[in-house]
């Protein structure tokens, strides 16, 4: 069976907790991604910032994205999966926590990210349908 490393998008870039949301948005545009893992000063993952987070939690509330840091929105326990996890474990983690992007860790380092697009390229139609039903269920 395929592993997380087999289906992930490699080469993920961090953004530090002290960076502002406007910088996160610029970096997302440069990298053509919708999410960035957020790291503390020790390069430990402490969350993920998404384009939706920036819009809903900052802009839509009338806050200034040049004054709000990535750390301000990186609350809670970040979810991740080991690079050797099988696809079933990846799906379970994403479905159980209703998340659309999942960081991949190898030897305590971030090595990639799994998104819905990555899943779509590697799963059967039945697996994708079950994933969508569970992740988007409210």
UniProtKB/TrEMBL annotation:
<feature type="domain" description="CBS">
    <location>
        <begin position="8"/>
        <end position="66"/>
    </location>
</feature>
<keyword id="KW-0129">CBS domain</keyword>
<dbReference type="InterPro" id="IPR000644">
    <property type="entry name" value="CBS_dom"/>
</dbReference>
<feature type="domain" description="CBS">
    <location>
        <begin position="73"/>
        <end position="130"/>
    </location>
</feature>
<dbReference type="InterPro" id="IPR046342">
    <property type="entry name" value="CBS_dom_sf"/>
</dbReference>
<dbReference type="InterPro" id="IPR051257">
    <property type="entry name" value="Diverse_CBS-Domain"/>
</dbReference>
<dbReference type="Pfam" id="PF00571">
    <property type="entry name" value="CBS"/>
</dbReference>
<protein>
    <submittedName>
        <fullName>CBS domain-containing protein</fullName>
    </submittedName>
</protein>
């Amino acid at each position: 069976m395929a592993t997380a490393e087999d289906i992930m998008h490699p080469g993920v870039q961090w953004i530090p907790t002290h960076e502002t949301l406007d910088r996160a948005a610029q970096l997302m545009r440069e990298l053509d991604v919708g999410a960035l893992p957020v790291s503390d000063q020790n390069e430990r993952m402490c969350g993920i910032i998404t384009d939706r987070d920036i819009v809903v939690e900052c802009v839509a509330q009338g806050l200034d994205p040049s004054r709000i840091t990535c750390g301000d929105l990186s609350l809670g326990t970040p979810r991740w999966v080991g690079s050797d996890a099988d696809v079933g474990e990846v799906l379970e983690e994403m479905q159980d926590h209703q998340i659309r992007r999942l960081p991949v860790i190898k030897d305590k380092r971030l090595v990639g990210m799994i998104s819905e697009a990555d899943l779509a390229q590697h799963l059967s139609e039945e697996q994708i349908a079950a994933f969508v039903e569970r992740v988007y269920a409210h």
